[in-house]
Amino acid sequence: MRCSYIRLLVNDYEACFRFYADLLKLPILWGDESSRYAEFDVGSTTKLAINQREVMAEALETDTADPDLPNQDRLAVVFEVEDVDATAEQLVADGARQVMEPRDWTAWGIRAAHFRDPDGYLLEINCPLIPVRD
Questions:
Q1: CATH hierarchy code of domain 2-128
Q2: CA quadruple 54, 120, 129, 93: dihedral positive or negative?
Q3: I want to staple 96 with a disulfide (CB 3.0 to 4.6 A). Which of 1, 63, 88, 91 is the partner?
């Protein structure tokens, strides 16, 4: 398992995009000011991503006003794994709190499952649907 993304779930996507792209001048790897999702190169193998907050809430079928999570999903830590299903099964067996079972997110090009850590932070494990060739 390797940390592949830190994903900020933002309320004002356009302003955040401009901040990271124009002010911090991070190279854009994917997305634009209107795409509601973008990835930036931060000089390491782990990338920074921003995602319109409602997009993630819709994808996980959660409500941004969940009383159990007063600041629900402002951040997601994303780990790339070899086998999402096997890793998810092991995490559940070891006591991890699963939010969403493994499924294909074809629009995102990944298979992913979602969990929460003991403090409620969102964790995603994923792997590409189409293996990347070296």
A1: 3.10.180.10
A2: negative
A3: 91
Looking at residue 108, its pLDDT comes to: 85
112 forms beta bridges with 103, 126
Q: CA 20, CA 27: separation in Å to the nearest integer? A: 9
Six-digit token string for 101: 């079972």
Residue 15: both structure tokens together: 């302003």
Residues of the chain whose pLDDT is less than 50?
none
Q: How many residues does the chain have?
A: 134
Q: For residue range 54-72, what is the model confidence (pLDDT) as tens digits?
A: 888 887 777 666 666 655 6
Is 82 within 8 Å of 127 (Cβ atoms)?
A: yes
Q: Where are the domains of the chain?
A: 2-128
Instruction: Give me the pLDDT at residue 117, please.
Output: 85
Give all strands of the β-sheet with 28-30 in edge-to-edge order.
28-30, 37-40, 47-52, 2-10, 75-80, 122-128, 110-116, 97-105
